[in-house]
Design brief:
This protein has helices at 24-40, 93-110, 123-129, 145-151, 176-189, 192-202, 227-238, 246-252, 257-268, 272-290, 295-301, 307-315, and strands at 10-17, 44-52, 69-70, 80-83, 116-120, 137-138, 156-157, 163-166, 169-172. By secondary structure, the protein is of the alpha/beta class. The protein folds into two domains: 3-202, Class I glutamine amidotransferase (GATase) domain (Rossmann fold, 3-Layer(aba) Sandwich), CATH 3.40.50.880; 226-327, Arc Repressor Mutant, subunit A. It has a seven-stranded mixed sheet, sandwiched between helices. The termini are far apart.
Amino acid sequence: MTLAQHTDRRIIPIYVVLPPHTLLMDVAGPVEVLRYANIEQEAILFDCHFVAARREQTTSIGLTLANLEPLPERLPEGAFVIVSGSIGKVPDPALVEAERREIAAWLRRSVVPGITLVTICSGALIAAAAGLLDGHACTTHADCIDDLRRLAPGAQVLENRLFVEDGERYSSAGISTGTDLMLHLVAKLTSAATALSIARVMVVYMRRSGSDPQLSPWLSGRNHMHPAIHRIQDAIMADPARDWTLLQLADLGHLSERHMTRLFREHTDLTVTAYVNLMRVTLAREILAGTRLDMEAVAERSGFASPRHLRRIWSQHNDQPPSHYRR
């Protein structure tokens, strides 16, 4: 189907920049999200262009990408530029460095206000070399954090983040997190339902940045990469009403209670108790929306000691149960 057949859809130009020795997953995952987005909804069409300094580009797995578009002289207003990561150790470092400088110079000229920059993995280093991350919060792969700080001394470089959003700048840690970031963008540009549907089709877990309003409280505090804390969160989400103790949760993470408590707060910005209560309130909301149970039954099913306890915790989230349940 041609673009002419999509005249009723808003077209967003996407320019995927392929550096030498491109990490293929940095491209394939995010672009698959956009492909599914074009199928799942009819309001927006993501029009993808694959651009590079050369007509052919090598990739991390040895596959050659051919018939690439040249770096355009000018980008259309409202375009998104996605800069892929690439492998670090290469057989032709001088050639690679020259090509990366060419891409950085193009980015410096082309990414002006109104153009959104998205970096995946070490793609952030090329953007940093172009001076496009200074004054912004950003992240990259853990192995590249020190290089990013060196190349962008004026940036707020954040570690242990899946992705970071700051104005017209988006950055991710790379590999699978590029997909997380693109789901986040699709949710903003289309709808949460579209992004969730794509996540289900792609069999990936959808997460949002901790600094943004959550699509769902179930996704709160998930923008980190600590496997033990994720295991604990998964267990709580699977059974919020359970009478969880710190010892039980610490055992799930193979941690001491004290260490688990510290790590949980550090990585989620929530205490364990606050997280459990949030999951219980979220469950209570869903029960209230889908049943005609009274408040006492809702409180019991969602893990609260009493309706009064449920109302008190609910009110701490700047919300109140429906009026007919407040008695």
